[in-house]
From TrEMBL, chain A:
Residues 311-339 form the 4Fe-4S ferredoxin-type domain. Keywords: 4Fe-4S, Electron transport, Iron, Iron-sulfur, Metal-binding, Repeat, Transport. This is Lactate utilization protein B. It comes from Commensalibacter oyaizuii. PANTHER family: LACTATE UTILIZATION PROTEIN B. Transmembrane segments: none annotated. It comes from the Bacteria.
UniProtKB/TrEMBL annotation, chain B:
Residues 94-189 form the LUD domain. It comes from the Bacteria. SUPFAM superfamilies: NagB/RpiA/CoA transferase-like. This is LUD domain-containing protein.
């Protein structure tokens, strides 16, 4: 195997406008970069193991998951009331609250706020909603310089790549990959791939931007209706720096992030980082309830498809997601194919159920990037029925005529085969006999996508049906 | 129709449920024995440390730690510094501070967190821009877990507060843990 630090980083899925993303093609390239693939798998599995260790330390873990799920279900049922309560309380604290129907409106609201303050530079802490709305690209077109302050997100920004994971955006990169990016963009020492050095380069080069920025932006992990507060969880302290250093703080947050009361916040904070990174809590759990002295605070509440999903009983539970990434860390497909192979903002199991909701045609292949093993559902801290929804998407896609040609042909043929017991039995017998004698190249070729990653199981000497027919059906006849 | 009304109407059409109350959350108390010890263990796990009490002068070890620092910014009367905060101090100007010394509102044993509010910090960036922090904490103000923490009155009184659990950290490159990401490089707690 090639040395990890010598291997070139595999790039993500090729995006061709609205054409369906070929996740399989990108995944195959990631798997071919065997050292990267192995590191990625080990790194994420390590997070999964840390999560398990934390779970076993909390006797009430399952009770907390039940509570979290119930709180989210309840909140989604009364979402409008809680959003109004949040707005009332936040406004009373001096926060400006804005509402955005979609990504475009959200971007425009943020552009307008920045223009009113003549703000030309924005320091930003990572927010998946920002990625969802392509906010950075929008602001850059407006002439605003946007600097990501989270280390992983900054690496991805400088490398012109999207985050590959909701919590660890550059998890698919090695230290050498990062060193190369920093050498090109931050004037870092050539060939110095010491992780401490690289993190220090980022700290030192980002700090001046934070100190001189006109505005700061954060996402929000939770909104508390009772107090009108935005809660943000980070490890690097970048959200607190982005929000507290410049005079203007803008929060962009999805409407589903709201919870009723402070007592509920405790449940989610106890679950979030334990599920995400296997740590008891993030280094900073920050609470913004109003602007600071001489400062200004804006909260943009973004819908962007959420209220439509709310009306769909099958896919509504996806709105409970708290973006911990536990489903990705446990998913065998995600761990082996890399987050960028999905070609969508949200990757892994949660991405499979969210992405087709944004663009069914473009992301129609994603619900098939799963083994349906249910591991994602087992670790989800808010008990989203992920694997059931992945399956439901497959049904929906079939109904909407969104299956690829090859899937349609296979499904149709198999459907006919399964519908006729006689044809099925003949096919099985012929197939089994043929497999025994066919040369290797005829079984393992491009037409057999199953055989690309696996061995075809050896065939039994006899099917159950023929064995039954031989031993019992004759006997039954004799007995009659 | 405004976007606000459009969104709220759409949500109300999607949700037609009988009114219910949100679930109430128990406190999950186990034992308040050795709560200070538990806090210390959790804090150390998160990368923070505890400064011991001196024999003659309780602040002896705090002062030793500060001895070689050039710019010290304390917002507590117990410690003397050389960078007083005034009404003209800007948030960004605290970037040259080596040590901030702040009193925390309370601590959380479960996670080793300390709560710093805008009233403790005076200028919020004091919690992040200095290279190091020393936190004074009254050990009787340590609560057992996060349920207790969020039942505290501070959350309804301040505009800003944060639970700090050790210094800033990142593991974004190959999972290698680094203390001192964007915020402070070290955080030490002193019980007084």
């Amino acid at each position: 195997m090639i040395n990890l630090q010598d291997e070139a980083q595999p790039k993500g899925a090729k995006i061709r406008g609205n054409k369906p993303v070929d996740q399989l093609e990108a995944a195959n390239r990631f798997i071919a970069a065997s050292a990267h693939q192995k590191m990625h798998d080990q790194r994420l599995w390590d997070l999964r193991k840390k999560r398990d260790a934390q779970m076993h330390l909390i006797p009430e873990w399952e009770e907390l998951r039940d509570l979290a799920s119930e709180i989210k279900n309840h909140t989604l049922d009364f979402l409008a009331d809680y959003l109004e309560e949040f707005e009332r309380n936040a406004t009373a604290n001096g926060v400006h609250v804005h509402w955005a129907k979609d990504a475009q409106e959200s971007n425009q609201i943020i552009s307008d706020i920045l223009k009113q303050h003549d703000a030309k530079t924005l320091v930003k802490s990572k927010s998946m909603l920002g990625e969802e709305c392509c906010l950075r690209q929008h602001l850059e077109q407006d002439g605003v310089k946007v600097i990501e302050t989270d280390l992983g997100e900054r690496i991805q920004q400088l490398d012109h790549e999207d985050p590959s994971h909701v919590v660890v955006p550059a998890v698919h990169k090695t230290r050498t990959d990062v060193s190369k990016v920093f050498e090109k963009t931050l004037n870092a020492q050539k060939g110095n791939n010491d992780v401490h050095y690289l993190a220090e380069v980022q700290r030192e080069t980002t700090r001046p931007y934070i100190l001189n920025a006109d505005a700061g932006m954060t996402g929000g992990n939770f909104l508390v209706a009772e107090t009108g507060a935005v809660v943000v969880c980070t490890n690097e302290g970048n959200a607190d720096l982005s929000a507290n250093t410049p005079p203007l703080h803008i929060v962009t947050v999805g409407i589903e992030k709201i919870i009723p009361k402070m007592e509920h916040l405790a449940v989610f904070i106890r679950l979030l980082s334990r599920s995400a990174l296997g740590s008891p809590i993030t280094q900073y759990t920050s609470y913004f309830r109003g602007p600071r002295k001489d400062g200004e605070m804006h909260v943009v509440l973004v819908d962007n498809g959420r209220s439509t999903r709310l009306a769909n009983k099958t896919f509504k539970p996806g709105l409970k997601c708290i973006r911990c990434g536990a489903c990705m860390n446990t998913c065998p497909v995600f761990r082996r194919s890399g987050g960028l192979s999905y070609g969508s903002v949200y990757a892994g199991p949660i991405g499979l159920i969210l992405s087709p909701g944004y663009n069914t045609h473009k992301y129609r292949n994603l619900p098939f990037a799963s083994t349906l093993n249910g591991s994602c559902t087992n670790v989800c801290p808010v008990k989203i029925n992920l694997h059931e929804q992945i399956f439901a998407w497959r049904e929906t896609l079939a109904k909407d005529n969104e299956l690829s040609l090859s899937k349609r042909v296979i499904m149709k043929t198999l459907g006919q085969l399964f519908a006729s017991p006689r044809m099925y039995r003949t096919a099985i017998q012929t197939g089994d006999r043929a497999l025994k004698y066919l040369p290797h190249f005829m079984v393992y070729n491009r037409l057999n996508s199953w055989g690309r990653q696996r061995d075809i199981p050896s065939t039994p000497k006899e099917t159950f049906h023929s064995w039954y027919a031989k031993n019992y059906q004759k006997k039954e006849k004799r007995d009659e | 129709m405004s976007s606000r009304d459009f969104i709220l109407n759409k949500i109300r059409q999607a949700c037609v449920s009988e009114p219910t109350s949100p679930p109430t959350v128990p406190f999950f108390h186990t034992s308040s024995d050795r709560i200070v010890e538990k806090f210390q263990k959790s804090l150390e796990m998160m990368g923070g440390d505890i400064l011991p009490k001196g024999e003659k002068d309780p602040y002896e070890f705090v002062k030793t730690k500060l001895a070689s620092a050039k710019i010290i910014c304390p917002v507590v009367p117990e410690i003397v510094g050389n960078c007083p905060l005034t009404e003209y101090t800007t948030p960004a100007s605290l970037q040259n501070v080596d040590y901030g010394v702040i009193r925390a509102s309370f601590g959380v044993a479960e996670t080793g967190s300390i709560c710093l509010t805008d009233q403790n910090l005076l200028i919020n960036t004091l919690g992040y821009l200095p290279q190091h922090l020393i936190i004074l904490l009254d050990p009787t103000q340590i609560v057992e877990n996060l349920h207790d923490a969020y039942a505290r009155p501070e959350w309804k009184q301040v505009h800003y507060a944060a639970l700090h659990s050790g210094p800033s950290a990142t593991a974004d490159i190959e999972g290698v843990l680094i203390r001192g990401a964007q915020g402070v490089r070290s955080l030490s707690v002193f019980f007084d």
